[in-house]
Amino acid sequence: MKRTIIAISVALVVMLVLAACGGGKDKPEATPAAAEAAQAAEAAPAGGAVSQGDAEKGQKLFVATCSACHGPAGEGIEGLGKDMTTSDFIAGLSDEELVEFIKTGRDTGDPANTTGVAMPPKGGNPTLTDEQLMDIVAYIRSIHKQ
Ligand code: HEC
Question: How far is C-alpha 4 from the geometric centre of its chain's CA atoms?
Answer without folding.
Answer: 58
